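Hey, can you fold this one?
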Amino acid sequence: MTRPRAEHGSALVEVTWLTLLLLVPLVYFVLSVFDVQRAAFGTSAAARAAGRAYVLSPDQQTAHQRALEAASVALRDQGLDLSAADLRISCEPSASACLQPGSVVTVSLDVEVALPLMPDVFAGQPPSIRVGSEHRAPYGTFREAR
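Sure. Predicted structure:
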């Protein structure tokens, strides 16, 4: 007769393997979601700040610089960098009448967020997710034309 084999200590091994197989990917997923959410909040705040800075500027030459600086500060607060190509500003009804009564300034911002803890083995660029935001800032119908 053979004795049944004792299973002392096998629960510890099973819990360890399940932790490695399930908990580590879950933690990575949560970290990735937090990074993307941080970027989404940052782009939304940056687009809003850029729109307000543009509309409150004295002329169109300084308006673009102020909008770029305001967006850059808002993104830096969230740990992101802004390049001038990521920020696009357009005006309605025409590009020459941005700071005229009744006009609307539209600020679009797209930022690329690198996924955390990913190596640069993919052609020198880590995998990333693109996050964008758009804000429309009305100049106001009853304001002075600049």
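The helical segments are 10-55, 60-76. Let me know if you want another pass with a different chain boundary.
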